[in-house]
Amino acid sequence: AQSVTQLDSQVPVFEEAPVELRCNYSSSVSVYLFWYVQYPNQGLQLLLKYLSGSTLVKGINGFEAEFNKSQTSFHLRKPSVHISDTAEYFCAVSDKGGSQGNLIFGKGTKLSVKP
Amino acid sequence: EAGVAQSPRYKIIEKRQSVAFWCNPISGHATLYWYQQILGQGPKLLIQFQNNGVVDDSQLPKDRFSAERLKGVDSTLKIQPAKLEDSAVYLCASSLQGGFSSPLHFGNGTRLTVT
């Protein structure tokens, strides 16, 4: 069975500063990895995903994440954040033999961008 | 394209009452999911449909929860009777198919409060 740990429940940061949201996973099999964003009172939206290939994955809104198999991590980064990036971010994992219904989500990290 | 529509947006009921949620997925999306998101947690899959058939309902508390997807389009999720611990946001999502090449599209959710 897979599990996901998002190490920070809240991350406050000033506008235009860089940010890293940390995600570690546990699995005995090969996995797919995802980051979703949830803006206030909205559903989740896919930011980026790692299925195979390059371990550096670029997503929407200037976000990127790096898959590190040895560290079992998939940290999300953005070099310069905007007020509009204020949201909750969820890391998710699934084994390669499953379907999207098998996604296991972390508890989320609330990113708060201050002017 | 129109997104995933859910109604109602908010619902407050007393314990032991019943409640129903409605979801209209994106047109043409064969796969439909219902998730439960408890405050401070990531979404947890309740049930997955492929067209009008159930793919996975292993985490659905079947003594009180039921779901159907008549004609493979709209879906309803029902809770009867509700318990205090059912207070959560209920998210509906859809995708073209269940595989990882088709991203999940989430609705804005229904926030249920059980008093």
Summarize the helices and strands and which ones pair or pack.
The complex is a heterodimer of chains A (115) and B (115).
Chain A: E1 3-6, E2 10-14, E3 19-21, E4 23-26, E5 31-38, E6 44-50, E7 56-58, E8 64-68, E9 73-78, E10 87-95, E11 104-105, E12 109-114
Parallel strand pairs in A: 2-12
Antiparallel strand pairs in A: 1-4, 3-9, 5-6, 5-10, 7-8, 8-9, 10-11, 10-12
Chain B: E1 5-7, E2 10-13, E3 19-24, E4 31-37, E5 44-50, E6 53-56, E7 65-68, E8 75-79, E9 88-95, E10 105-106, E11 110-114
Describe what you observe in this structure:
The complex is a heterodimer of chains A (115) and B (115). Chain A is an all-beta fold and 115 residues long. Chain A has no helices and twelve strands. In chain A, the strands form three sheets. In chain A, strands 2, 5, 6, 10, 11 and 12 form a six-stranded mixed beta sheet that branches. A four-stranded antiparallel beta sheet of chain A has the order 3-9-8-7, with no helix packed on it. The radius of gyration of chain A is 14 Å and the shape is globular. The model of chain A has no long low-confidence stretch (mean pLDDT 93). Chain B has 115 residues and is mainly β. In chain B, strands 2, 4, 5, 6, 9, 10 and 11 form a seven-stranded mixed beta sheet that branches. Chain B has a four-stranded antiparallel beta sheet with strand order 1-3-8-7, with no helix packed on it. Chain B is globular, with a radius of gyration of 13 Å. The model of chain B has no long low-confidence stretch (mean pLDDT 94). Chain A binds chain B through residues 4, 32, 41-46, 49, 51, 90, 92, 94, 99-108, and chain B through 4, 31, 33, 40-45, 48, 55-56, 91, 93, 95, 98-100, 102-104, 106-109.
